[in-house]
Amino acid sequence: MSYLISEAAQDLLGDVKDFCENEVKEPCKEFDRSGEWPKEIYDQAIEMQLQTLEVPEEYGGPGLSRVDVAALFEEMAKADAGFATTISASGLGMKPVLIAGNEAQKKHACQLIMDGGFG
Fold first, then answer.
1. Domain 2-114 maps to which CATH number in 1.20.1090.10, 1.10.10.10, 3.40.50.2000, 1.10.540.10?
2. Are 102 and 77 in contact (CB under 8 A)?
């Protein structure tokens, strides 16, 4: 699939794959059994700025294409669908503001995500 995504996304895809394989896959299985929420895993994801993948470049995001973002979310979902869904939900919360908000609202919503929040 790497031929479909940008060079920047290809580099990030390797990092995401390593992170998910080493830090997400097995621990999330245990968290599913225990019912706990793996805050430390999400803290690591925020440190990697994975919640910012859909923030437009003009608001401080990485400026990735939809195909790039989809490939990255797909890689996360290979390790744990719940993890990928939680990370991708930031985009869902931000999209209505980007579509219908004024400029101040767009900047505010994107900054919340860029500062480590989830949508």
1. 1.10.540.10
2. no
